[in-house]
Design brief:
heterodimer, A: 764 residues, alpha+beta, Aldehyde Oxidoreductase, domain 4, Aldehyde Oxidoreductase, domain 3, seven-stranded mixed β-sheet, five-stranded mixed β-sheet, globular, B: 154 residues, Ubiquitin-like (UB roll), DNA polymerase, domain 1, 6 helices, binds FE2/S2 (inorganic) cluster
Chain lengths: 764, 154
């Protein structure tokens, strides 16, 4: 088709942009409330580890407007997980809706339903609870084999035994992998670097906190409207938790105010669902910011010890990684996330790698449960490996760019540490070279002391991610020819602001060779949408996008069949072009609009196709990031001057949206590296429980961002595309630690690197 | 107390707790563009204009509106539509949850200073947090709008 008319590759506006920019009521809490909607609030544990001895709700029930108070005595006894993963989940079934055993500050004690806010608030104070406070496991280094058990109960169970959990040792999950004789290769290396790295349980902070509204549809089914990335998983999780049939639940999502993985866990859904099911009344739960910070689903705190062996010429021959990860009180996503630390970092250095080792233990502690956060373990792994490689370059007196180009994975290489998958499309070197050129690496890498004493320095990192969970994620699309020759695209993937509704519409518009305006898209609803695992693992463009192209191809065949009936010409002799069916000589034509009319008139060929897709592999996107900082040695303040990034996400479907993904991810990564801190006091209270204390970057702290692309072509992706959603958060932490080392001579191997630490500490 | 004020130029009068945060009052009156991101003056999502001045409605008691004029994005849609398309062209609307707050503040900025530099835009909007966009696309959008206006391309 006409190149200028193509949607793929064009920076078209998001289909919902004007609604969002003019403040239309499109989020959970903006939607009209059903009549008599109850306010749901959670009474939360003030203790990190405690048993409820007595709980008395009678006074609370006397408060006018209080409708119900539920305690552990009222909920089903079957344990479940809130992790949004394909069943059987790799996360252990280790929680109850309400439990007598409270495992972290913020763990729900009682569930309150009232006619209004004030009554619900008053009830929170009126529920009388007597606790037996138990010793708590707060430091994850001490968790394994601690005499205090986070999950002493006997009904803890793992659906996937290979995840290696042992709650009687406070182990949530564990694993060992490797290939080649790491110890032998390390012993042959000229230089071996070994350090522990520490990353805290940083929070995604979607600007919209967790929230869910429940209602009943006209058939009496529980209708859940939630800010979620995973409608189908939510249906299953709620059915398990409540012990009710899946057929009695429908889940949908309206617009979502950001997710970043936080909403890949059903953090808020189960509570109002239970209230509505029990009271037979609509209900709504909106988390406060404090609740979202104290009882959300943040990144897993980890300590990663990397051993990296190399030769004097810079050849990296072996990498060994030992990971201790902190699940917190419950095990959502713990096994999967721990795995990605190595799977997504070690393969970057496939070129000369002869052996790798990987061992992980995820332990339970009495802190809030961790979950999925953009990057999903890769972010932690990348900080450790990329920092180590930067140190290696420094020790060998090599340019960190050269050492990367020497060892980086090349297209066609098989990556043993990446499930033995082949890098079917890879332009990592192109990313590095283009980034170095645009950034001015040669000029900026040398440390420069400015006349005012401030120091300018640069740092770099490279990274990869996946494009789905290989052979597991399912993406589906239903495409229907609609009246007037337009197409309705129905998907179960969740646009959380990333723009996947637009990207998938662009893909369909190119398949049908019609203007984007001819596509309408209908978002995730478990009754109406074809099955989709959900929007996570960077999979939507790659997996669901491919399902769109497959559905479109099949619909075209059906349209040809209908045209063949009308024209009396065999379908094989017809071609589809520009949203119409033609004879090969182009003398006869039936437009999609005419076919739509015909399809509604004495027709039995369905003008609707559903296709599901899964990909056996997960082709990685690649990226390079370089940062220039100005560091004030007096105050330790770090000012970012420039951040350059070049991404290989395969074909760029929408350059504007891809660029924003990259810019947004880089800024989140900057926050994790420099300002976002997490500290617990001796009783297990989180200090950073408001946005005043938990400091995400403002627009004055980001420096100038420059994002570009160096695309490869991934034949398995739609129009050659791979993913971009997660990879973008990975480079800032190692690149900034590198630049700070260059400016100060101190390696910081734990985050965040605050001005106080830069001035006061010697480095890690 | 009885609170009487102009909401998007229309007179409203109602009974409300004087200490109720203005954001709650406005949302209860259907002004759903006003968003809450932090509850304590950090994020800027709840920005509205009180007598033309941008304020954080999460920390202004409803009583302060009595006898005054409050504008929300619902009442300024036309003024916003002049420039927000340029932000959409950058894809910087993203999840959109922070959009009403910084669009309100941008309206206030452009009324005060019709030709700001990029640095002035960043300074003025510094209190408007966004977790999705990385901020730069928002500034590019506003910049493109200002350029288009100067070049008579609107
Ligand atoms: S909600 Fe008012 S500033 Fe955040
Ligand atoms: S667009 Fe999501 S917070 Fe700004």
């Amino acid at each position: 088709m006409n190149e200028e008319k193509r949607s793929v590759g064009a920076a078209v506006r998001k289909v919902d942009s004007m609604q969002l920019l003019t403040g239309q009521p499109v989020y959970v809490d903006d939607l009209p409330e059903p009549h008599g909607c109850l306010v749901v609030k959670l009474l939360r544990s003030p203790h990190a580890n405690a048993m409820i001895e007595e709980i008395d709700a009678s006074a609370a029930m006397q408060i006018p407007g209080v409708v119900a108070v539920f305690t552990y005595k009222d909920v089903p006894a079957e344990r479940y997980t809130e992790a949004g993963q394909t069943y059987p989940e790799t996360s252990p079934h280790d929680r109850l809706i309400l439990d007598r055993h409270l495992r972290h500050v913020g763990d729900p004690v009682a569930l309150i339903a009232a006619e209004n806010e004030d009554a619900a608030e008053a009830a929170l104070d009126a529920v009388k609870v007597k606790y037996t406070v138990l010793p708590a496991v707060l430091d994850f280094h001490t968790a394994m084999d601690n005499e205090t058990l986070v999950h002493p109960e006997d009904d803890w169970h793992a659906l996937c035994p290979f995840t290696g959990g042992d709650p009687k040792r406070n182990i949530c999950a564990s694993g060992v992998e490797g290939e080649g004789d790491v110890e032998k290769v390390l012993s042959e290396c000229d230089i071996v670097l070994e350090h522990p790295f520490h990353i805290k349980a940083v929070n995604q902070v979607p600007m919209e906190t967790f929230r869910t509204m429940c209602d009943f549809d006209s058939n009496g089914r529980l209708h859940i409207t939630s800010s979620t990335q995973i409608v189908f998983h939510v249906r299953r999780i709620v059915a398990h938790a409540l012990g009710i049939p899946k057929t009695s639940i429908v889940v949908e999502k309206p617009r979502i105010g950001g997710g970043f993985g936080a909403k890949q866990t059903a953090v808020s859904e189960v509570y109002p669902a239970f209230v509505s099911w029990m009271t037979k009344r609509p209900s709504k739960l909106v988390f406060t910011r404090k609740e979202s910070l104290e009882a959300g689903s943040p990144r897993h705190e980890m300590e990663l010890t990397v051993r990296l062996g190399a030769m004097r010429d810079g050849t990296i021959r072996a990498i060994d990684m030992n990971v201790l990860s902190n699940a917190g009180a419950y095990g959502e996503h713990s096994w999967a996330i721990a795995g990605l630390t190595a799977h997504k970092s070690i393969p970057l250095y496939t070129s000369g790698l002869e052996a790798f080792g990987f061992k992980f233990n995820v332990v339970y502690t009495n802190r809030q449960s961790s979950g999925a956060y953009r990057g999903f373990g890769a972010t932690q792994g990348m900080f450790a490996v990329e920092s180590t490689v930067n140190e290696l370059a420094d020790k060998l007196g090599m340019d960190p760019l050269e050492i990367r180009l020497k060892n980086s994975v090349k297209e066609g290489a098989m990556m043993p540490a990446y499930y033995h998958e082949t890098a079917t499309s890879c332009n990592l070197d192109g990313c590095l070279e283009k980034c170095a050129e645009q950034f001015g690496w040669k000029e900026k890498f040398p440390v420069r002391v400015m006349p005012d004493g401030k120091i300018r320095a640069a740092g770099m990192a490279m990274t990869m991610q996946g494009s789905c969970i290989s052979g597991i994620d399912v993406g589906s699309a239903t495409v229907r020819l609609d009246d007037g020759g337009s197409y309705c695209l129905m998907i179960g993937a969740a646009d959380m602001g990333t723009g996947c509704d637009t990207i998938l519409s662009q893909i369909l518009s190119d398949c049908m060779e019609c203007p984007l305006e001819n596509i309408t898209i209908s978002g995730a609803n478990t009754d109406r949408s074809p099955y989709d695992s959900g929007s996570y693992a960077s999979s939507t463009t790659f997996v669901t996008g491919k399902a769109v192209t497959m559905a479109a191809e099949e619909l075209i065949e059906k349209m040809k069949a209908l045209a063949s009936k009308i024209l009396g010409i065999p379908a094989e002799q017809l071609v589809f072009e520009k949203n119409a069916v033609y004879t090969q000589d182009h003398t006869k034509c039936i437009t999609a609009a005419e076919l739509a009319d015909a399809s509604m008139n004495g027709n039995e060929i369905p003008m609707e196709v559903t296709r599901s897709h899964t990909n056996p592999t997960s082709p990685p996107p690649f990226m390079a990031g370089m940062v220039e900082i100005e560091l004030d040695p007096e105050t330790g303040s770090v000012k970012i001057l420039n951040y350059n990034a070049v991404v290989d996400c395969g074909t760029v479907i929408n350059p504007a949206l891809a660029r924003i993904q990259a810019e947004g991810g880089i800024v989140q990564g900057i926050g994790m590296a420099l300002t976002e801190d997490i500290n617990y006091d001796a009783k297990g209270n989180l200090s950073e429980n408001s946005l005043m204390k938990y400091r995400i970057p403002t627009r004055l702290e980001t420096g100038r961002l420059h994002v570009d692309f160096a695309p490869s072509y991934e034949a398995m992706g739609p129009f050659g595309a791979k993913s971009i959603g997660e990879i973008v958060i990975n480079t800032p932490a190692p690149a900034l630690a590198h630049a700070i080392y260059r400016a100060t001579g101190k390696w910081f191997r734990s985050l965040p690197i605050t001005p106080e630490r830069i001035v006061m500490e010697k480095g890690d | 107390m009885e609170i009487k004020f102009l909401l998007n130029k229309k007179p409203v009068s109602l009974e409300a707790e004087p200490s109720m945060p203005l954001i709650d009052l406005l949302r209860s009156l259907g002004m759903k563009s006003v968003k809450c991101g932090c509850e304590n003056t950090v994020c800027g999502l709840c920005t509205v204009l009180l007598d033309e001045v941008p304020v954080l409605s999460c920390s202004v008691p409803a009583a302060r509106a009595d006898g005054h004029s409050v504008m929300t994005l619902e009442g300024l849609k036309a003024e916003a539509e002049e420039f927000v398309g340029f932000i959409a062209d950058q894809g910087a609307d993203q999840c959109g949850f922070c959009n009403p707050g910084y669009v309100m503040n941008t309206i206030a900025l452009l009324r005060e200073n019709p030709d700001p530099t990029d640095e002035e835009i960043r300074e003025y909007l510094a209190g408007n947090l966004c977790r999705c966009s990385g901020y730069e696309g928002q500034v590019r959008g506003i910049r493109n709008y200002l350029n288009a206006k100067k070049e008579g391309r609107l």
